[in-house]
Fold this protein.
Amino acid sequence: MRTVAPPILAATPDAIAAAGRLLAEGRLVAFPTETVYGLGADANCDRAVAAIFAAKGRPRFNPLIVHVAEANEVEALVVVDERARRLMERFWPGPLTLVLPRLADSPVSLLASAGLDSLAVRQPDHAVARALIAAAGRPLAAPSANRSGRVSPTTAGHVAECLGDRVAMILDGGPCRVGVESTVLDLTGDRPLLLRPGGVAVEDLAAALGEIPATPKASKTLKSPGMMESHYAPGLPVRLDARAPRPGEALLAFGPVAEGAALNLSPTGDLEEAAANLFAMLRALDRPDFTGIAVAPIPRHGLGQAINDRLRRAAAPRPEDCR
């Protein structure tokens, strides 16, 4: 039986309004954010949220991020303390997700938070994303618009390749500006914990809140997306900190020294450019004429921390359902 590809529509006002109606009906819509393309559904509807997990093949113990159009909309979903307000004023809209205590009467589906008493929330820094949330008239649960564990999409075409007819519509807003997912910060305890490095540098968060430790690796509870050990993975094996490719490998380089490179994340060594190129270049090198992808060393400061986190998970041993 042939599947029908979803429509890819330029994100015009009419297309955004139509997408909002689909979301209100419980359908799935892929849309651009500043980080990666998201797979959106009505966060308040159990059936719609369940459709996200089915479309992605995502484990149901892995919670979702809930997106709002305006920062004050989270007041109906979570408990917002002084620390959260400070960060929201400084970094929202933007690539920062906050994990906060869930309100007892929060309308968000428990499935979106994997049954936890916390909820991950953010306000995206993308006009199309916020217009879509407003058009839908409800918060949107929206993980990356790809099959679970695979490389995140940064263009509308990537979404179509990954999900096909699993999504009702794809809104095309062009390539994503940041190119890696949001930073996730857990504020449910007395001390903030970094759950995932991302588009906001940890150094900038520390300047606002003080020292921010990372969640211990031994933690078994997934309080946000992007915490599974194997994630963001292409089909080919990934080898990190490579100075040169081995026979059959494609070299993904960084910086001006790129002899033998198939692609270069940033010839000038610009971490913002490298982050924006990361997922698209991993996809481009995931080809049968290579035996693996060798990745050059990436600095570990600023956005480099997020890039290295994604690469480490892409190179991790993979469970069978991620292959």
Remarks:
- The radius of gyration is 19 Å.
